[in-house]
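Duplicate of #3305? Posting structure anyway:
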């Protein structure tokens, strides 16, 4: 999944399903068996434990029997039960999927790892989980931004008659101009004396 996302993110935006095939042949049980032998020998015919399933699809072809093809390919996978102890069928979550796609008179065979894990190579289903996670991350970021805005607390004004803003003038203290005017208009000699001394 990481490889598909990092290397082919732009590519898969314009595709629905990856159609991966390893070999082609004439659509007959005999030819499919021969091609499957060559394709599976190096991977399946050894002591390494592995599981597989066979995925068969046919379009515009009525000459092949589905069960006959699946039985022939399964026999090749286990090499006539020679490797039956290490090669097991697992339909739910196989390590390998042997795909047989028949279109008219041509058969396409593929050997695909992690078939179920990679959503059967369906790009829409494969990227749906990525998109969901990206949307969840975006939602979390939006919630964090909204939370930061709500946490800003305005300063609380203290109650009381004596609390005044810094710009508010004190009513009890006269300004210099008012003091000078009072002194100038005063007829009291002591006031003039105080003014001259200051």
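Output from current build:
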């Amino acid at each position: 999944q990481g490889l598909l996302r990092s290397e082919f993110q732009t590519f898969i935006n314009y595709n629905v399903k990856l159609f991966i095939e390893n070999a082609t042949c004439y659509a007959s049980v005999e030819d499919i068996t021969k091609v499957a032998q060559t394709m599976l020998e190096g991977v399946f015919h050894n002591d390494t434990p592995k599981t597989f399933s066979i995925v068969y699809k046919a379009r515009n072809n009525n000459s092949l029997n589905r069960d006959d093809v699946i039985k022939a390919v399964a026999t090749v996978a286990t090499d006539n039960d020679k490797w039956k102890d290490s090669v097991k069928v697992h339909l739910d979550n196989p390590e390998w999927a042997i795909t047989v796609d028949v279109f008219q008179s041509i058969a396409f065979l593929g050997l695909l790892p992690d078939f179920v894990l990679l959503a059967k190579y369906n790009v829409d289903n494969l990227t749906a989980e990525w998109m969901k996670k990206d949307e969840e991350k975006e939602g979390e970021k939006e919630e964090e931004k909204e939370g930061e805005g709500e946490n800003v607390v305005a300063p609380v004004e203290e109650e009381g008659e004596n609390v005044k803003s810094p710009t508010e003038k004190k009513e009890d203290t006269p300004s210099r101009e008012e003091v000078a005017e009072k002194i100038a208009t005063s007829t009291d000699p002591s006031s003039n004396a105080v003014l001259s001394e200051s």
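Confirmed duplicate; merging threads. Helices lie at 2-12, 29-44, 66-78, 123-150, 176-185, 189-197. The first strand starts at residue 23 and ends at 26.
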